[in-house]
Amino acid sequence: MDLSLLKTILQVLLAVTGLLLVLLVLLHRGKGGGLSDMFGGGVSAGAGSSGVAERNLNRLTVTVAVIWALCAIGLGVLARIMLVTG
Transmembrane region positions (predicted)? Predict the structure, then answer.
């Protein structure tokens, strides 16, 4: 695989996961609510962070964050390889 193609794929994946990560973080329920309240997430105050939906949102957010970090690291390694090989 061509290194420039791999670089482009990683850059696109980094941008997409970055935007998705921002959206997922905004959907989390904080102390004062957040965007999740706007979409009906703040219906019951007692079931906030212990619900299945909130746990799944946490897992999805962590997964997307790990993918984003791996893309960033991969781009750094790829830049180093491209610098060395010319």
Answer: 61-83
C-alpha 22/C-alpha 71 separation (Å) is 16
Helix/strand/coil for 48: coil
Asked if 61 and 28 touch (Cβ cutoff 8 Å), the reply is yes
pTM for this structure? Answer: 0.76
DSSP label at residue 75: H
Average pLDDT over all residues of the chain = 85
CB 28 within 8 A of CB 36: yes
CA atoms within 13 A on the CB side of 53: 10
Report the amino acid identity of residue 11: Q
Determine the Cα–Cα distance for residues 10 and 70; give it in Å rounded to an integer: 9
Nearest 5°: the CA angle 53, 56, 57 is: 85
